[in-house]
Each structure stands twice: as structure tokens, then as C-alpha cells.
Hints:
Blueprint: H1 2-24, H2 29-55, H3 57-81, H4 87-108, H5 112-136, E1 140-142, E2 146-150, H6 151-168, H7 176-203, H8 219-223, H9 226-238
Antiparallel strand pairs: 1-2
Helix pairs in contact: 1-2, 1-5, 2-3, 2-5, 3-4, 4-9, 5-6, 5-7, 5-9, 6-7, 7-9
Amino acid sequence: MILHIYFVILAYFFLGTIGFYFINRKKDKKSARKNRRKIFTYFVIVNVLFLSIVWHSLAFQIVSILILLTGAGELLKLFVKSGYSNKAFFALSFLVFLLLGSGFFYFSTLRQGWVLFTFLITAVFDSFSQISGQLAGKKRIFPEISPGKTWEGTAGGAAVAIASGFLLNRLIGIQNCQTMVVTVGIILFAFAGDAITSLFKRTYQVKDFANTLPGHGGFLDRFDSLIPAGAFIALLHVFNYF
């Protein structure tokens, strides 16, 4: 089963690479090189997360703590670098991060199938939203906050993610109706997480949280969708949805 899931991941990467090939044909050499570096880094990240999830629950818990501690450090660093500006906004943002982060850590302790399902749906939504947006995106959702996010890109990513939910629901053993609810919930929380971090970055006038991950920026730039998506699944578990 795990090997089968990994082959599914490789298939998604193959499709994504084809999408980026067509995107890069319209880019200058510098941008195309940056995209290739981004794809390679993302491939490494996905493999590390996948291996930590399937190897041992403790491994992913350690990874989740690393993500959260690094993310908190990135938030604090930008706040300090700004000269402690927008204190009320930062306090509210950090509180939201702590709440979502607590949910995300709780999520990391759940059954492997749910963790893997959530991780895969979030990764598919993120990746194919970007690919769809760069290939066909025209109408911006938040022009002032996140200029790169479009209705077309989000719709494309959501469509592929929902289809993937039905393909992968054997991991969590739920029926089709529940699959739709869970998958759409993951998508909405992932989207909201990305929008919130974009607002934070625009408020503090930075493009990325850090330069830790080549082509991606900081840990929060990469995991701003997975953290709230995991918190959503944790919330479902607390209320005995599954």
C-alpha cells in the first residue's frame, strides 16, 4: 500500500514537471532556472515528509516540532527586524499561529492514514494551484495581498485535489460523502493559511519569511498550507468526526 502511494506521488510529480515545462517555455532563463530549483527542492521536501510519516509516528512528530519552532522563529525575526512595528497585528497573528500550531502538533500524533491523506491532498492542492495559475490564471483573488493567486489557479488545484481525495480515501476508510467534506475542508484551511501568511508578509513588506529553502523561501512559505490543514483534521478528531 505504501509503495503504491509513493508511485502515485511520483506520477503527480511527473504531471507537475510537464506543467512546469510549459510554464518555463514562457520564462526567461533566470526564472526558468529558479523554477527548476524550486521543483527539485519540493521533491526533496515531499520525500522527507513522506518518509517521516510512513517510517514512524515519532519521526513526523519531530518534523512537525521543527516546522513549528522554525516558523515561530521566522515570525519573531520579521517582527524584530521591522522595529517591533504593528504590535497588535503581530500579537493577533502570533496567537493564530499558536492555535493552528497546537492543532498541527496534535494532528501529527493521529493515525498514519489520516496524516498521509492530509499531507497528500495539501501538496496536490498547492502544486496544481500554482501550475494552473501560471498556465491559465487571469483573475486575481487578492491583488493587494497575494498577486500571484488567481481564481483559475485555485479552481484547478481544488479540482485535482478533490479528485485525489476520492482516489486516496482508502487511506482513511471513509465513504464518498465524508471524503468530499474532509477534502474540501483541507482545501479551505490550506487556502486560508496561505492567504493569512501573505497578509502578514505584505504588512511587514517582505516577499518571503526567510531564504532557508531554495526557491521557496522560509519554512512558513512552504508549510503555511499544511499547518492549518492539519489543524482542521485535528479539530475533526476532537469532535469525533472519525
